[in-house]
Each structure stands twice: as C-alpha cells, then as structure tokens.
C-alpha cells in the first residue's frame, strides 16, 4: 500500500492496522510467550488487545480466544483448557477428504451430525463433565429467537423440547435468562439452567444466536453442580464473549 492509499484509510482502520502490526511484531520478538512475559504485557490493557484478537496466539488475563472464521463465531476460554482431540481428528479427516484428488465416491460420505460440536474445550485429563462447546445447526429461513418469545419464554420452551423433553428421564430447571444485542444487530439469548438425570446433576450456561444465513449457533458451558461455585465466574466471561463474526 502506498502513502496516498494509506492516508485515504479511515483513521480508525489505519490506527487498528498500525497497532496490530506493532503488537504482532512485538509478540514475535518476545517469542512463544517466554515465561509468560508476552501475556503479562498484553494483560496491562486487556480490552485493547482482545479487541485486536491477539489472544488467539497469547493468553490475556488467563483466557485464550477461539476464533472460527470459517464457521463465523468466536469466544474466549480458560488458557489451561485444551481442545477435544476427537473433534480435531475428525476435522483433519474432513480436510483430507476435501483436498483429495481422487474421484468422489458413488455414495457421498455422511455429513457431520448436526448435534456434534464444531469445537469443544475443557481441562486436560478430564472426562468432559466440565467443558464449553459450540454447535451450529440450520433453521428455517426467517426464524428468529424472538419468535420463541422473550428470553424466559424461550428458555422454558428450549428446556421442555430439547434439554429435558417428556420421557427423557431428565429434569431441567431454568435459573436465569437474559438477552443482549451486539454492534452488528445480532440478538443473543443467554440461559442458565440445571439438568438432573439418574446419574448426573449439571449446571449449564448456554448462549443462542441466529445468523443471517439461517443457522442457529449454540454455545454451551457445563459443569457438575458440585463445581458450579468454582466456575460460575469463568462461565460468565465465556458466555459474555461469544459472538458471531464475519470472515476476517
């Protein structure tokens, strides 16, 4: 880009690119978060650096960012949590199939199950009772969360139809429900609820949003009820950070 073109950029865009370039260069100079020094520097102004998505590479304030531009969402999660290896393996397999030079089979391979998460993260060495995941599923064109009513009404409907339907041998209780809208005009419903079954008792926070391409995004963070007091603040940070994004 020449000087004239740079001057024609909107000041905010030019400033953002300048800062991002500076931070990226600094981060590379510091190396792979040597002894946590890069994260410590970035944590001095977490809002700025999170806005620049530097936390995709380096934790800020104890959290890293999951940025899925191909699926159109992002959120932050505890830096010590790791990705679900099964999902990563399946993603690699899908990528290999898409890059294959062989002729396509007569019978097309089955698509990803709609209930299977796009991503999932949790503490290493655990069995998945404590985790956060995102599921993306198609919905009818023109569907909005508001058509389910306000957040409380929608929450009751979701719990009855999807979380603990009649005959499932599960009992769900809605604790709280709220709505927010981002700068792009996307509406998010956040539900806090518990689910009790014959062999488990979980506390969940879920965030729902519908994209302009008629897809329902669901971020779900769950923990055993016995751990809720330890993770409730983490879950709030995770759920508040979830939003839909366009390609970058």
Can you walk me through this structure?
- The structure is a single chain.
- The protein has a seven-stranded antiparallel β-sheet with strand order 3-4-5-9-8-7-6, sandwiched between helices.
- A hairpin with a 4-residue loop joins strand 1 and strand 2.
- The longest helix is centred in the N-terminal third of the chain and has 20 residues, at 11-30.
- It has helices at residues 3-8, 11-30, 37-42, 46-51, 85-99, 151-163, 228-241, and strands at residues 63-68, 73-78, 82-83, 119-122, 131-138, 171-181, 187-197, 200-210, 215-224, 243-244.
- Helix content is 32%, strand content 29%.
- It has 248 residues and is α+β, with helices and mostly antiparallel strands.
- It has one domain (52-98, 116-244): Protein Transport Mog1p, Chain A (3-Layer(aba) Sandwich).
The strand count comes to 10
Please give the largest β-sheet: 7 strands, antiparallel
Strand content: 25-35%
Q: What is the 3D form?
A: globular
Evaluate the radius of gyration: 21 Å
Give the termini distance in whole angstroms.
19 Å
**Oligomeric state as shown:** single chain
Low-confidence stretches: 1-20, 26-30, 97-112
Number of helices: 7
CATH topology name, in short, is Protein Transport Mog1p, Chain A
- Measured as a percent range, the helix fraction is 25-40%
Provide the spatial order of strands within the biggest beta sheet. 3-4-5-9-8-7-6
Q: Quickly name the level 1 CATH class.
A: Alpha Beta
CATH superfamily: Mog1/PsbP, alpha/beta/alpha sandwich
**Class derived from helix and strand content:** alpha+beta
């Amino acid at each position: 880009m020449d000087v004239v073109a740079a001057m024609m950029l909107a000041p905010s865009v030019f400033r953002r690119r300048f800062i991002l370039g500076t931070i990226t260069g600094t981060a590379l100079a510091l190396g792979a978060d040597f002894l946590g020094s890069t994260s410590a520097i970035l944590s001095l102004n977490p809002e700025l650096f999170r806005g620049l998505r530097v936390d995709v590479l380096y934790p800020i304030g104890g959290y890293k960012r999951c940025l899925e531009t191909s699926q159109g969402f992002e959120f932050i999660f505890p830096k010590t949590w790791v990705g679900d290896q099964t999902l990563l393996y399946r993603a690699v397999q899908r990528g290999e199939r898409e890059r294959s030079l062989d002729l396509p089979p007569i019978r097309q391979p089955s698509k990803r199950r709609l209930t299977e998460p796009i991503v999932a993260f949790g503490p290493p060495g655990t069995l998945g009772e404590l985790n956060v995941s995102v599921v993306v599923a198609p919905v009818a064109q023109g569907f909005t969360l508001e058509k389910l009513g306000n957040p409380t009404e929608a929450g009751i409907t979701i719990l009855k139809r999807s979380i603990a339907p009649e005959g499932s041998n599960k009992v769900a209780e809605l604790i709280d429900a709220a709505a927010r809208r981002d700068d792009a005009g996307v509406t998010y419903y956040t539900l806090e609820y518990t689910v009790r079954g014959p062999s488990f008792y979980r506390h969940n926070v879920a965030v729902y949003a519908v994209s302009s391409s008629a897809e329902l995004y669901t971020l779900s963070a769950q923990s055993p009820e016995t751990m809720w007091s330890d993770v409730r603040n983490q879950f709030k940070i995770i759920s508040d950070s979830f939003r839909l994004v366009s390609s970058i």
